[in-house]
């Protein structure tokens, strides 16, 4: 049976890694039937809107999407389309696993970061206060975390731990300085943790100490539960532990809708060259297969990626290889025939 899903090629390297991912999903015999829709600069160029109504309608109908990265211009007048999508569909949980496939600086990393995906500083209540003749003499940014939203993401993380056999959750905060904004997050997590006392351990760590510990001894962690901004930052750090942004998938999950994507952005520095590493989005599509219950296909996909990297030694430039995005995808397809 076919599962309709929205496919958003996105910007920069987006179309390149999306094409490679769809190629191997087809080779796998994935159940998805794609509705291609535009967003980001591609949306602006095709219909003058970074989040066209047709794209939103398609996601609303399918409740499932795979999306390439979207460029967010820095400066005024633009709100991130990613942030808008997360708000629009109440995708309150961002799940970002980091798993060593190619041993590099670190080996045997197996971590999952859960990031609160809607609140915190990303509500972007921002403004300037003019002083004298400087209209931007003072910049103000306000973060918002509600107790309900904090408990919701904590419950999501603990449920995820139980379902996936994870044993420990480290709550990351800055409750010593951002006492209200991140204190409420820690408080809510402690409250929820009590319900899971016999199944999942909880500890907490201040974000700066956590950043250092992730470099010194990442193996002490199992799951990280983070506020929005800290989760954004630390998930790139986790990607660094497993070979970089080319290796990091993410899932944006709400109660009824889920959008799967890579952790990385549109990588304008290498866009159009055909050299991007498509693994992040491929692994994200693996999370999407699991989301619809096709653990078998997700497992085959991961095996094919692992064997292409470690048996065929075919890798893109970011992993010190010479393969193009296409060559890498082609060899995964060949590997799939043997699995
Ligand atoms: P970026 O993640 O696009 O790139 C950072 C560095 O990592 C670059 O040197 C890039 O070449 C490299 N890189 C990233 N993905 C790679 C891959 N798959 N293979 C090989 N190398 C890779 O971050 P940056 O430059 O800060 O952001 C560029 C744009 O992307 C911005 O407009 C930003 O707003 C947007 N962005 C979008 C995201 C999304 O749609 N979910 C997430 C993060 C950023
Ligand atoms: Mg980020």
From TrEMBL:
Q: Which SUPFAM superfamilies match?
A: Isocitrate/Isopropylmalate dehydrogenase-like
Q: Which branch of life, at top level?
A: Bacteria
Residue stretches making up the Isopropylmalate dehydrogenase-like domain: 2-332
What Gene3D superfamilies does its record include? Isopropylmalate Dehydrogenase
Keywords, comma-separated and alphabetical: Oxidoreductase
Could you confirm whether the keyword Oxidoreductase appears in this record?
Answer: yes
- Kindly name one Pfam family recorded for this protein: Iso_dh
Family designation = Belongs to the isocitrate and isopropylmalate dehydrogenases family.
Q: What is the name attached to this protein's record?
A: Isocitrate/isopropylmalate dehydrogenase family protein
Native source species? Undibacterium arcticum
Taxonomy of the source species? Bacteria, Pseudomonadati, Pseudomonadota, Betaproteobacteria, Burkholderiales
